[in-house]
Amino acid sequence: MKALASISSATDVTSGEARAWSSRAVAIGIAAIVAILLGAAVLLFVNLPDANAFDARVERLFVEQDFTAQRELRLLELLAQSGTAFREVLASYRTIIFVLLVFATAMMIAAVAFLVMLVALNRRMGHIERKGIEVNSLLISRETNTVYLNNFEFKLTEAAIETLAVLAEARMDDEVLTGAQIEGVISGRDAANCDEAAGATRIKRLRDTLGNQMVSELLVKNIARKGYTLAVDKGAIRMV
């Protein structure tokens, strides 16, 4: 029973470790993404042609050749205008590349964050499957045949609510009940005169009524050679 009582604290410790691990993974992933994209940006901008290269070639041509004719001067003027257009196009290319790099960085960071969240969620679900469901509050209302599990409402049959109430009372007394004992408490007979299978059937019907397989299997625990109990901290149980 000590292991059952420590489910919540063990889950909290594991959750803290998972969050710490997730934070480190996100930080490392983001740093790696920024470093890779920064290196790619440096390589792209370094290998882009010089914006003044075209103008420099035109100027060199003007110095090396003696242009005096009107047509030749008009050609040089057109070449100079082409150099200005080339410089403007190259500047727009630099802007586009910068925007694309920023967008790629944001998308990759988001992808890493979602991946880490999925991994952490899978680890969390695996821990729940191994240790049991973490229940902060379990309120059983016999009048309305309703159970509130972590503020989630489950409508049960009268027989199922009786079975759950018996398990809850036993859990608050740190007891584990066999199927025969469960049947005896509900039917008012001596456990020695009750069939083990009858109590097991009540547990099965309770799980079927809860519906959610994970919730029902982890909430109602079957301890080998001992009996049935609730994997809930007894301080979280209330009955009205």
Low-pLDDT sequence parts: 1-14
Q: Average pLDDT, to the nearest integer?
A: 75
Number of strands: 6
Strand order within the widest beta sheet: 3-2-1-6
Sheet-strand content, in percent, reads 5-15%
Helix content: 55-70%
| Global Rg | 36 Å
Number of helices: 8
Overall morphology = rod-shaped
- Oligomeric description of these chains: single chain
Total domains, how many?
2
Class based on secondary structure composition and strand pairing? alpha+beta
- Taken in chain order, the helices and strands follow as HHHHEEEHHHHEEE
Structure write-up:
- The protein is an alpha+beta fold and 240 residues long.
- The chain folds into 2 domains: 2-131; 138-239, Winged helix-like DNA-binding domain superfamily/Winged helix DNA-binding domain (Arc Repressor Mutant, subunit A), CATH 1.10.10.10.
- 69% of the residues lie in helices and 10% in strands.
- The strands form 2 sheets. It has a 4-stranded mixed beta sheet with strand order 3-2-1-6, covered by helices on one side.
- The longest helix has 62 residues, at 70-131.
Write the SSE topology.
Layout: H1 2-5, H2 7-47, H3 53-64, H4 70-131, E1 138-141, E2 146-149, E3 152-155, H5 158-172, H6 179-187, H7 196-210, H8 213-219, E4 220-223, E5 227-230, E6 237-239
Helix pairs in contact: 2-4, 3-4, 5-7, 6-7, 7-8
